[in-house]
Specification:
There is one protein chain. With 166 residues, the protein is an alpha+beta fold. The protein has one domain: Pnp Oxidase, Chain A (Roll), CATH 2.30.110.10. 16% of the residues lie in helices and 38% in strands. The strands form two sheets. It has a seven-stranded antiparallel beta sheet.
């Protein structure tokens, strides 16, 4: 139960009906590259521009991001189901995801995924523990807007078997 008496089950049922856009976050710390599919992310300031990307504290990408200076946030197109499956259904502890997709080096040496035409790179300003996720507060340093947004959403991502437990 929460402080006001609402059950976690009721809350999960309520928010489970929301259909958030999904993102793929990539990062690099030294020679170590990582990336994962995320659903907890939002713009959190207009001026100055800020974005909050939340990564599960249990995954490889979060461990690498804790040592990194920047993250790239990719807006996953609806047509990129296989890419979402790769970054959401495989663990970086076991698989080199970047050997299985096309990417290039972007700002701050970040891996930029070729299949995601819309993305931005952000310098990590702060890290916040937010329950079972770590929130990375980002200051955008470069962005690319290539195609109209037709996003891959949470309801499609629900079918992906996670690469690690939540």
């Amino acid at each position: 139960m929460t402080e006001d008496g609402a059950s976690a089950e009721d809350f999960h049922k309520l928010v489970g009906d929301l259909d958030y856009p999904m993102f793929i976050v990539t990062t690099r710390a030294g020679e170590e590259k990582a990336g994962c599919l995320i659903g907890f992310a939002t713009q959190c300031s207009i001026d100055p521009p800020r974005f909050l990307a939340c990564l599960s504290d249990k995954n490889y990408t979060c461990r690498v991001a804790r040592k990194a200076e920047a993250l790239a946030v990719h807006f996953v197109p609806a047509s990129a189901g296989e890419l979402a499956e790769l970054f959401g259904g495989k663990s970086g502890d076991e698989v080199d995801k970047f050997a299985r997709c096309e990417w290039r080096e972007g700002p701050a040496g970040l891996p930029i995924l070729s299949e995601c035409d819309n993305w931005f790179a952000g310098r990590i300003l702060a890290r916040h523990e937010l329950g079972d996720h770590i929130g990375f507060l980002l200051d955008p340093i470069e962005s690319h807007s290539g195609t109209p947004l037709d996003e891959f959403t949470f309801h499609r991502a629900r079918r992906i078997e996670p690469g690690h437990e939540a």
